[in-house]
Write a structure and sequence with these properties.
Blueprint: H1 9-15, H2 30-40, E1 52-57, H3 60-69, H4 75-78, E2 81-88, H5 95-104, H6 110-124, H7 129-153, E3 157-161, H8 166-172, E4 179-188, H9 202-205
Antiparallel strand pairs: 1-2, 2-4, 3-4
Helix pairs in contact: 2-7, 5-6
Length: 211
């Protein structure tokens, strides 16, 4: 199924809703999912170290396996795919690879690269676990939101899911121990529109210059 990519950011933001009912007959292609994931990974991350990792579950038998782990939420089996988003708690080990590519692309000098690699190796590596988890959760949230907007721009729908048994999920899908669960994202074509929601007015959530 081909969908039209929307170029109106404001429309995309306003039309994105959490959709829980999907058309099981719609199967997204690997190419479509890869395009969405590529756009998602343009999101910012701490020191551009990109700690996000993804498991795309589009095989129907594996979605059925996931269903009870996700507390029998039907979107798991009806959506085209479920994307598991993780944060790699050893993300800093990719520093040399990422910054060398930046030098090759002309985005930084070798001297700046060495400074960044030093930060990755000496600062991030030695952080306490709580701080590491905080970083990958922040960056994982950024990439997840960008993924959902990219999907909406292509006419697809999503719902972020925190309701699943993280321990059983890791066991069932052989997730590395150093991968932190961030969320599951069901993605596909809505069978029913997402429920309209309201937002708090700005004067209740925004302060200017002081709290």
């Amino acid at each position: 199924m081909s969908v039209q990519v929307s170029q109106d950011f404001h429309q995309v933001v306003k039309e994105r809703h959490s959709v829980r009912y999907y058309d099981p007959s719609v199967k997204m292609t690997i190419a479509e999912l890869e395009e969405i994931l590529h756009e998602a990974t343009l999101a910012p991350s701490s020191s551009n170290l990109q700690p996000w990792r993804f498991l795309v579950i589009e095989d129907q038998a594996l979605k059925e396996k996931l269903l009870p782990i996700a507390f029998n939420q039907k979107q798991v089996v009806d959506a085209s795919a479920v994307i598991a988003v993780f944060g790699d708690l050893k993300w800093y080990e990719r520093g040399e690879q990422i910054y060398s590519a930046s030098v090759d692309a002309g985005y930084m000098t070798e001297e700046v690269k060495q400074q960044f690699v030093g930060t990755a190796e000496n600062v991030y590596r030695n952080m306490d676990e709580a701080r590491k988890k905080s970083i990958v959760h922040i960056d994982g949230g950024l990439v997840s939101m960008q993924l959902m907007l990219s999907a909406r721009a292509r006419g697809y729908d999503t719902v972020p899911m925190g309701g699943f048994d993280g321990v059983k999920f890791k066991e069932a899908f052989n997730v590395p121990e150093h991968y932190e669960n961030i969320m599951l994202i069901a993605i596909g074509k809505a069978a029913q529109p997402g429920r309209p929601t309201v937002r708090l007015p700005l004067d209740q959530i925004v302060s200017w210059n002081e709290l």
